[in-house]
Amino acid sequence: xxxxxxxxxxxxxxxxxxxxxxxxxxxxxxxxxxxxxxxxxxxxxxxxxxxxxxxxxxxxxxxxxxxxxxxxxxxxxxxxx
Amino acid sequence: xxxxxxxxxxxxxxxxxxxxxxxxxxxxxxxxxxxxxxxxxxxxxxxxxxxxxxxxxxxxxxxxxxxxxxxxxxxxxxxxxxxxxxxxxxxxxxxxxxxxxxxxxxxxxxxxxxxxxxxxxxxxxxxxxxxxxxxxxxxxxxxxxxxxxxxxxxxxxxxxxxxxxxxxxxxxxxxxxxxxxxxxxxxxxxxxxxxxxxxxxxxxxxxxxxxxxxxxxxxxxxxxxxxxxxxxxxxxxxxxxxxxxxxxxxxxxxxxxxxxxxxxxxxxxxxxxxxxxxxxxxxxxxxxxxxxxxxxxxxxxxxxxxxxxxxxxxxxxxxxxxxxxxxxxxxxxxxxxxxxxxxxxxxxxxxxxxxxxxxxxxxxxxxxxxxxxxxxxxxxxxxxxxxxxxxxxxxxxxxxxxxxxx
Lengths: 81, 406
Ligand code: HEM
Ligand code: HEM
Ligand code: SF4
Ligand code: SF4
Fold this sequence. Notes:
The complex is a heterodimer.
Chain A: H1 5-19, H2 27-38, H3 44-56, E1 61-65, E2 67-71
Antiparallel strand pairs in A: 1-2
Helix pairs in contact in A: 1-3, 2-3
Chain B: H1 9-13, H2 22-30, H3 34-49, E1 54-57, E2 69-74, E3 88-91, H4 101-114, E4 118-121, E5 128-131, H5 135-147, E6 163-164, H6 178-188, H7 190-194, E7 204-207, H8 216-219, E8 222-228, E9 233-234, H9 236-244, H10 249-252, E10 262-264, E11 269-271, H11 281-285, E12 290-291, E13 296-302, E14 316-322, H12 329-345, H13 352-359, H14 361-367, H15 397-402
Parallel strand pairs in B: 6-7, 7-8
Antiparallel strand pairs in B: 1-2, 2-3, 3-5, 4-5, 8-13, 9-12, 10-11, 13-14
Helix pairs in contact in B: 2-3, 4-5
């Protein structure tokens, strides 16, 4: 059964949440994981849509530390008030 | 406060040289803008102490976008409160960097209100660089800019803001419409530009001819450089005129031809076009007499990068010649295949040029479905990349890997 954007976004969100504090995940990590999990029920376009939804809703944010990552919103170490 | 500049004896020395000085510019901005004033004071302090006082931020940006804002904080916020935050914004420049003065004034007005007032026109990225603002000003700046039709550019692991030479707008040598092409690619890849999804950055640069005024061969992962495949156009009368006016055609033109494919007998200039390397030298020296041929298109090269994680690379030939006509479907399809492969197999922070070096050009070409051709070989017999499968018998795989019985 083809997955919906919402389902993929939910699964990605869970991955990001579980990895918080342990590993920073790149968008490609998330997309690869979804393909492993759901096989032909997902494609790159759907996964990109899901990431877009997570970021546009503020559930996740893009971060940059040498490369780009997807993380939960948080106050970063370097920030000044 | 705003009008008294901090004392900066060391910086002041930088104003005494012959070159335009950024110190002068920052001082000018500092008269009105407290951020610039603190910046002067902090920089002077860094010069004295020989210590940098900036921290990198990794999270600031505007809602929905993953690129275009580069976070900076200083580590002495109590002493320099106005530049506690000093984020850079990259703004997508118009193709070929053409502006009306009205547009420039509006950008400056926005930035004087929302940031330090300091700009860098243009960064080596090609974008408009707006230097220094605080986190709470990012969204308002973004929306002010959107009202005058400017958008944020790329940063991080995304398609970086594409840039091009002024091409057909000003230059008779342009072999394709760089400005149109740059614009079309920018619009086609908006998603990839704003939502980083690659192992690392990917840059496109477009030059209209091999003079390569945007240095695409050194600065872009994909360099699209105009060229021609027929004969250099020649105006015999104009050649005679150059000679009559004292140009030494033998030493200035013929002897400098890298292909050694020109001859000059004092009357007639001959070019053996099949050996011409399209280097532009002769055309640059005799612009009135010579010009690129009529059958024009571009060479597509892949893989340049500056030394960050590993050493510098120049782009090398991927497609020797292609006609450049919108909507550039053939090129964009190939770009998609390159991205798919690189996203699947590339390591974190590995540029596409490094990726090719790691997996080998032969494997790379096979995966992106491009036939190897002689033009891809930079150094004959030294280049271990290209394997022609038909030379190998079935079961010869080990030789292919090692190639040590050559
Ligand atoms: C040890 C200190 C630093 C290192 C190693 C460093 C390294 C780098 C690198 C590798 C890039 C290119 C990033 C990319 O495009 O992927 C970059 C860009 C940049 N850095 Fe730094 N940097 C340092 C300090 C600073 C400081 C102190 C500032 C500002 C006060 C700064 C401002 C910038 C800006 C504005 C850019 C973007 C330039 C552009 O848009 O072309 N950097 N830096
Ligand atoms: C003595 C002090 C400085 C020197 C010698 C210096 C030198 C340079 C040079 C050589 C470049 C590369 C230009 C290019 O090829 O595009 C550069 C870029 C840059 N500088 Fe400076 N700089 C100085 C101070 C500063 C300060 C104080 C700032 C910020 C307030 C600054 C911000 C930048 C930025 C953002 C870029 C990258 C823009 C770009 O090319 O994309 N620099 N600087
Ligand atoms: S790269 Fe060639 S076409 Fe473009 S501006 Fe330079 S000389 Fe002209
Ligand atoms: S373009 Fe360069 S290689 Fe070709 S004829 Fe002129 S100088 Fe020689």
